[in-house]
Amino acid sequence: MMGEMMKLLEELTPLNRVVCSSDFDLTVDRMRQLLPCEVFEYPATAEEHNGWVIPPKWDVVEATITKKGQLLYDGTWHPLGVIALSAPFEGTVPLDVLKAHLHYDHRYPDSLTFHFRQLFRSWDRDWGFCVPKDLYDALKPGDFDVRIITREEPGILKVVVGTHPGSLPYTIALCANLDHPGVANDGLAGVAVGVDVLRRLKDRQTKYTYKLVLAPGIMGTEYYLGHLALGERQQILECLCLWMLGSRTELALQDSRGSRSNIERAMAGFMDDRGIPYRRGEFESIIINDEYLWEAYGIPACSLSRFPYPEYHSSRDDASIMSEERLEEAVAVIFGAIEELEATPLVEKRFEGTICLSNPRYDLYVDPGQVSFGQRIGEDQRRLRMLQDFLPSLRGPVTARSLAERFELREEVVVTYLRTWERKGLLKLWDSGSRRSSDVA
User: Among candidates 57, 9, 2, 59, which has minimal Cα distance to 34?
Assistant: First the structure.
């Protein structure tokens, strides 16, 4: 029996989910049915943001190539059949002019490629088709009648945000791309996984708020983050980007810039403990997508993907290459990491600079001992001293478990030590499932 994630992929993959299109609007409406969410709308009539320009709403009505009255190609047979945001065109052209407007996949003779550049350059548009290389190579000299009819109006960029509320003033974002016409793995598989994670969190009390941000790639994320109220943006602790999680390729965990997110460590630990095969790489070593946009706003962004996969950016990326088992595996990894984050205290620094810990006012100094005095240095003491010296350099809240793993200490030892800092008002430990900590009566 087909699961909910596969059903969603079967349903939405055939749609022409170009940014600002009727099919994208249908997809947004489907998301409203699946989860409690808010839809953020950014009209093209507004001022551009950081140079980004929202394209017009664009739908293909007709797209044909004929020769002597014989239909050679109907670009509406697949959402990739017409280049994204193609300009309308009607006319008769010779073979060399036609070929200049035809694009094909150089890897596979029978598939279509994804021509997406114009979505980000709507001020400079051309007309064109994406065709199989077999067709391109078979064209003979002569005159060809081209007809591309589009329906256009001012566009509205839409971003869907589903929210599972938590008790603490911190949010963990899950990000996936809702656009990409006619393909299953690139974007939509991550959407299906994210929706399933949020569905499983329903009716569960959590420490963190979890937001599922479903945005058109790059531009949608930039508009969402750039227009988000500063206070709300500052509450986003970190982001996990979900890319291409349905193919039969191996999982790939890409760290945030500087490996700063808690969830990347939790996912790695979950996969290590259960023997799940995966690759791990530094920021931008595996994939370059919306991660750099989150990082630009000061939000650490890691990603879980199955990139690369052979069908990327081609019409071969359809529901047939999807694996329900691989989708479920991705959900299990993410949910396992969430359960760990919920179980361990979150450590928030509440001081600047470096504290004189030996001052009687604090009395927090860890003395590892001095060999020259004949003192034996205990290993736990040495590691606690390393933790002590690390705390002033914290750039954002971290989990107690991540600190324990970093310094190879038992978590209870770390938490006990951190509590002494909390009693002096230097740290705040947010405990599981409650706003209470030891300094709140």
Answer: 9
